Amino acid sequence: MSFDRTVKIAPSILSADFANFGQEIEAVEAQGADWIHVDVMDGHFVPNLTFGPPMCAAIAKHINTVMDVHLMIAPVDPYIEAFAEAGADVLTAHLEAGAHTHRTLQAIRGAGCKAGLALNPATGLEEVDYLLDMVDLVCVMTVNPGFGGQKFIHSQVEKVRRLREMIGDRPIHIEIDGGITPETAPLMTAAGADVLVAGSAVFKGGSVSDPAPYGENIRAIRAAVAG
Ligand code: DX5
Ligand code: ZN
Which of 25, 26, 91, 105 lies at a CB distance of 3.0 to 4.6 Å from 113, suitable for a disulfide? Predict the structure, then answer.
C-alpha cells in the first residue's frame, strides 16, 4: 500500500447485503471502489453488533483493493492479531476504546497492519498530538458510530481542517466516516480529507444483479469533490 493523498472512496459493507458480501465486494470494486471499509461492532463500545475475524477472513479473499477494518470494539488489544491474520490492511481503533491507545497503535503496527486512529464526534484533537508519529490514518467520525444512514455532523469539518494542519507533511491519511454524500463530501475534501467512507450513498439503488447504480453513486461523489 503506497501513500498518496488523492481522494479514495471506501464503500462500507455495512450497507451491503450481509448474505452476499463476497459478490457485493466484487461488484463495488468493479464499479470503481478504491478501498473496502469493514465495520466491526461489538454491541458494547457501540450499540450494534456486526461480525468478527472469521467473517473478515472470509471476505478478504474477495478484496483486491485495500481492506480497511474499522474496529468499534472495546477492548481492542486482545483481537489485533486475529484481525491482522484475517487480512486487514488498515486496522483502525477508537481513541475512546481504552486508556492505552499508544500501546494499541504499537501493537497494530507490530502485527503488520497500517495503524488507524478513529475519533468520535465529541472527541477533541488534543490527545492525537502525541500519537501522530504512530499512525498511518486518522478517521474522523462524522456520525456517532454504530449505524449506517445517519445525518452528517457539520462541526467535524472544522476538526478535519485543524487535523490537516497538525499532520503537515507526515504521510497520514485523513478518513471521514458517516453521512457522506455528493453534498457533504466536497466540504471534507476541501478541509483535507482523502479517504471518504460511504455506505448508504454507494449501495443505494443497486444490488449484485444490478450493480450499475453502485458505479453511478461512486462517480457522483467523485464528480462532486472534483468540481
Ligand atoms: C458507522 C460506520 C460507518 C457507516 C457509514 O458506525 O462506521 O462506516 O457504515 O454509513 P453511511 O455512509 O450510511 O453513513
Ligand atoms: Zn466505519
Answer: 91
**Cell 447485503 found at:** 17
Comparing C-alpha atoms, which of 114, 76, 111 is closest to residue 93?
76
Q: Report CA-CA distances (Å) from 15 to 5, 48, 111, 148, 206.
A: 26, 14, 28, 7, 11
Q: Please give the model's pTM, rounded to 2 decimal places.
A: 0.98
> Catalytic residue at 177?
yes
Q: For 135-167, write each residue's pLDDT tens digit.
A: 999 999 999 999 999 999 999 999 999 999 999
Phi, psi of 128 (to 5 degrees): -80, -25
Q: Is the four-CA dihedral 140, 145, 148, 150 of positive or negative sign?
A: negative
> Catalytic residue among 68, 89, 177, 194, which?
177
Which three cell numbers, joined as nine digits, stand for 9? 472512496
- For domain 8-226, say whether CATH 3.90.1300.10 is its number: no
Q: Pairing relation of β-strands 67-72 and 36-41?
A: parallel
147 CA → ligand 2 middle, Å: 9
